[in-house]
Amino acid sequence: CLVQAEGAGGAVSSLSVWNGPLVCVPHYRVSVGVSADGSVVQVSTDFCPRAYGAYETALGDETYPEPTSREMFSEKAVRTEYSEAFYTGEALAWLGRVKSTPGATVRPYGGAAGALPSGPLGVEMELEASAGNLELVKAMCAEAAEMWLGWMEGAERQGQTKTQMTFAWDCKVRKAINAYAASGYASRFGPEAGAFLSQADAGPSDIADRGG
C-alpha cells in the first residue's frame, strides 16, 4: 500500500507491504517525510514481526528479562525464531549503522514503549534536508528493501495452525498501526485526511486473510 500526501503540514510518502499469513516473513513499512518548512527529513522503517515476542520489554543492554511464566517462555521462543531467520546479527548491525548516521536525531520507534507493535529493527529519525542526507535516506531505504526481498525469496509456506495464529496476530497489529498512523497523518493534514490516509495505508480490510 502506497500513500503520498502533501499539505500545510509538509509532505510524506509511505509504503506498507502486508504479507499474508501463509508466510512468517515480517511486514515491511517505510515512511519518508519533509517538515512544513522543508528543513527536516523524517524517516521511519520497521519489519513488523508476525507473532508476539514482547520486544517492548527489552532492557537497556538489549537483553530481555528471564522468563518466569509460560507466556514469557512462548515470547522468548518467538524472539529466538525471529533472531535466527530475520533479526540476525547482520540485520542488527545494519540498524546500528543507520542510527549512527552523522547528524541524525533518533527517536523511540512508535513513541511510548509498547504503543506500537514492532520488532527490534524499528527506527525513526530526523535529518537536515540536505542533498547528501537525501542520498543517505535513499540508500537506507534501498538496503532495507533488499533485506526484506531476500527474506521473501527464502520464505516457506506455514502449516495451518501457524497460519491461523499469524492471521490472528496480524489483525491486532494492523489495527494498532492504523490507529498510530491516523494520529500521525492527522497532526500533519487534519483529522479527516488523517483517517483517510491511514486507511489507505492499512489496505483492504480483508488483506490479512489473503494468500502469502
What is the first-to-last residue Cα distance?
15 Å
- Low-confidence runs: 208-212
Work out the helicity level. 40-55%
Domains counted in the coordinates: how many? 1
Assembly level: single chain
Overall pLDDT metric: 90
The top level CATH class name: Alpha Beta
| N-to-C series of helices and strands | EEEEHHEEHHH
Class computed from helices, strands and strand pairing: alpha+beta
Give the biggest beta sheet. 6 strands, antiparallel
CATH topology (fold) name? oxygen-dependent coproporphyrinogen oxidase
CATH architecture: 3-Layer(aba) Sandwich
Count of DSSP strands = 6
Count of runs of 4 or more consecutive helical residues: 5
Radius of gyration: 17 Å
Shape: globular
Strand order of the largest sheet: 1-2-3-4-6-5
Beta-strand share of residues:
15-25%
Please explain how this structure is put together.
The protein is an alpha+beta fold. It has a single domain (2-209), classed as oxygen-dependent coproporphyrinogen oxidase (3-Layer(aba) Sandwich). The protein contains five helices and six strands. A six-stranded antiparallel β-sheet has the order 1-2-3-4-6-5, with helices on both faces. The protein is globular, with a radius of gyration of 17 Å. It starts with a strand and ends in a 10-residue tail after the last helix. Residues 208-212 have low confidence and may be disordered.
